[in-house]
C-alpha cells in the first residue's frame, strides 16, 4: 500500500513543484499580488505556471480512481502500475511543458489520462473474472 500512498502524495504535491519552478525562473515573485504576477509571466516561467495549473486539474481524477479501486477491494498490485505510470507520465508532461514540446506533451497527457482512468475500470474487470 505504501507505493500507492507515495504516488498519491507525489501527484498531490506536483503542482507545488511546478509553481516553485515558475517562481524561481520568473521575475521577482510578488506575494502581495500573486495573480497579477502570474498574468505577467511569459516564456519558461509561464509554461511552468501552466504545468502547475494542469497538475491541479489532473490530480482529483487520479486520486478518486485509486481510492475507488481500493474501496472496491481491487488488489493493490493491480492498481500500482497505473498509479506509478500516472506519476511518471505527469512528471514527463510537466517537463514537456517546460521544454515547449506541445505535440509530445499532448501524447504524454493522453497516456497519463489513461493511467488515471484505468483504476475506475479495474473493479469491473475483477467482477468479470
Question: What distinguishing features does this structure have?
Answer:
129 residues, mainly alpha, Four Helix Bundle (Hemerythrin (Met), subunit A), elongated
Describe the structure.
With 129 residues, the chain is mainly alpha-helical. The chain has a single domain (2-128), classed as Four Helix Bundle (Hemerythrin (Met), subunit A). It has helices spanning 2-25, 34-39, 43-71, 76-98, 102-128. The longest helix has 29 residues, at 43-71. It is elongated.
**What structural class is derived from the secondary structure elements?**
mainly alpha
**What is the CATH architecture term?**
Up-down Bundle
Shape: elongated
Query: What profile does the largest beta sheet have?
Result: none
Reported by name, the CATH topology is: Four Helix Bundle (Hemerythrin (Met), subunit A)
Share of helix among residues? over 70%
Taking all residues together, what is the mean pLDDT? 94
**Count of domains:** 1
What is the terminal separation in angstroms? 23 Å
- Stretches where pLDDT is under 50 for at least 5 consecutive residues are none
Order of helices and strands: HHHHH
Radius of gyration, CA atoms, in whole angstroms: 17 Å
Discrete helix count? 5
